[in-house]
């Protein structure tokens, strides 16, 4: 069964702190994406990870991929309020089946 | 960059009426477009895959007669919710893939919020 699991589902953190969101998937994947969604809005693409060991960084967000462990992480460094949003990982299986994780709702408090 | 638009951005309709949602790729051609629905505070659920010039492929559990999809051109796909009922109220998001063959980079539209009274 093709499954994508994210955790945590809810994350409340203080500004300035670091935290990691995890995305596990059930079987071999072709690509993995991270998206951000603000309330009432559509998805904004953050990162696409294509190969084992891939690491990408943009501002305070860094994503990595371990295809052997079937795990991707989204690391937040020194969080700021503007990062409050819901973050989704999405995995493409068999080149034509895209599955989303349940999402992690991040709230950054001052 | 690749831009996808949706129209309308929100719609309120009475139960029993039909609603059409348009998804357009503005600066690229999309052989394949995807339709998702998202319930409040939930993830995206793929409803169907729409290929230009052919019938859409629906996911299991999605009624093809209720959610009519037409991919009329390489830049336009429409989703018509027929005889809408309150349980069809949801956030509908489309995405477009500029490349043929499998799923490549998807560009998402801004979404359409449907409320059925």
What's the quick description here?
The complex is a heterodimer of chains A (110) and B (117). Chain A contains no helices and eleven strands.
Number of helices, counting only DSSP H or I runs of 4 residues or more of chain A: 0
Poorly predicted sequence stretches spanning 5 or more consecutive residues of chain B: none
- Give the topology string of chain A: H per helix, E per strand: EEEEEEEEEEE
Q: Could you name the ranges of chain A where pLDDT drops below 50 across 5 or more consecutive residues?
A: none
- What shape does the CA trace of chain B take? globular
Distance between the termini of chain B: 37 Å
Explain what the structure shows.
The complex is a heterodimer of chains A (110) and B (117). By secondary structure, chain A is mostly beta strands. In chain A, 0% of the residues lie in helices and 59% in strands. The N and C termini of chain A lie far apart (41 Å). Chain A is globular. Chain B has 117 residues and is mostly beta strands. Chain B is built from no helices and eleven strands. In chain B, strands 2, 4, 5, 6, 9, 10 and 11 form a seven-stranded mixed beta sheet that branches. Chain B starts with a strand and ends with a strand. The mean pLDDT of chain B is 91. Chains A and B meet through strand 5 and strand 10 of A and strand 10 of B.
